[in-house]
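[job 0412] stage=fold_complex status=start
inputs:
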Amino acid sequence: MSTNSRWSTPAAEALRVEPGFSLVDIDTRSTPGYDGDKTTGTADLEAGRAPLEGLQERLFAQSVAGTATGSVLLVLQAMDTAGKGGIVRHVVGSVDPQGVELASFKKPTAEELEHDFLWRIEKRLPDAGRLGVFDRSHYEDVLIGRVRELAPAEEIERRYGAIVNFEAEAADLGIRVVKVMLHISKDEQRERLAERLERPDKHWKYNPSDVDERALWDEYMRAYQVAIDRTSTPVAPWHVIPADRKWYARLAVQQLLVDALEDIDPHWPAADYDVEVEKARLASS
Amino acid sequence: MSTNSRWSTPAAEALRVEPGFSLVDIDTRSTPGYDGDKTTGTADLEAGRAPLEGLQERLFAQSVAGTATGSVLLVLQAMDTAGKGGIVRHVVGSVDPQGVELASFKKPTAEELEHDFLWRIEKRLPDAGRLGVFDRSHYEDVLIGRVRELAPAEEIERRYGAIVNFEAEAADLGIRVVKVMLHISKDEQRERLAERLERPDKHWKYNPSDVDERALWDEYMRAYQVAIDRTSTPVAPWHVIPADRKWYARLAVQQLLVDALEDIDPHWPAADYDVEVEKARLASS
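[job 0412] stage=fold_complex status=done
writing structure:
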């Protein structure tokens, strides 16, 4: 864990869901584990770019060298406006794009609906040595899927177990599955949606359906609670990140990624050629 | 063209290949159009991040809103060590990853070899509203393809015309094709390869085949000259960027991208809903 003095508890530990967890009792303006404010948090986020970038470059080097065994998959779930896009831009965006595999899951296509809900997900698991990011994920199928009854109740039930198995298999493949729910309050969402309506340069981020889903806030919170309860496992735990403060959410995700990469502990690949021989060849070329 | 005072000639104009162009006569340490040094160039690169990011965000907004008609495709070609990776990391890396579609073309697979050389390329053309990047491209099929005689001479000949047609069709689809050759000297390449051999943290970037290809430097330069001559068109011109100075190459590519995006001139999408109605719905939600 790469900590600085302002993390009194490592982010992974402070944010990991434990038995008895209650989503509605989380203070969405809190900053678990971090004893700093926006000023220090913004500075720490900036300072954390280099360590994250460095670790990811080593991992990417392994993927190029063909020696990578591990990868990281960041799964981002959240209500609208909670800040997924900002995480992608300001946290993931600080590493070399060559090593990133970003998958945004929208409403399933007709073809995707003909298959099991995990069919389109499995195809986007990151290759060894990569940092994968799921902007929404298979969890939509037990969130909006449950709230909007997009599948029969017994199918929704089946999915929790299917997800646990799927993520266990991913972990067996060396994928560090980092599951994150960005958690904002309903009031915070109203403010953010209002800003999108106020500003013409934000109109594209607003969709009338956002308010339709917002009307079902409590049902969504219950669906999140069930999903988190049913799919938190030692190899793929959930982290619920209070996200009313964007700086904190970004800093926390950065820490979780550093943590996952340090767990892989990627080293620069050794040369698979004779360095001295190559120096001589190069000198005479 | 977004210029600052140190560009005496816009990058696109200074670098665009014109009839009579001679690759071997280019000074790879020169900085065409730019009257500055490493210090100012580095500062200008940093200052250019925000305009590039802003333009790309508008384009991405259009893609989300479904109103995008244009896209940008940066085609990067170069001899080994010329700095393609640095362009991806330091120039492309400054924009929102959500709007970027990066394709790295390696040695073709068996399946790819069963198809026309453009088969795998066409699939990776950027969607409307995106910034596509080809790290190597269909030009490999007339560069290493020609030098290494990977296809019959008449097939190589056919490809130049096929490429011109292909890129014209892409342009018709609204794709701004920005073709860049990063051009380093053979001596500069030796220094960069030597550094990769000196530093254990760079060993992964070195491959013994780099020296094999290096031995064919002059043949490669001829193949580039032919490819550039045969495929420079008004809708998809080549830009040859002297790249011994990394800061200049990055600054120049940044300018070319800004230029292409300004040509698209993306505006924030207008709301396709009634803003006042939505404000009322939100307020009562």
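[job 0412] summary: Chain B has a mean pLDDT of 96.
[job 0412] exit 0
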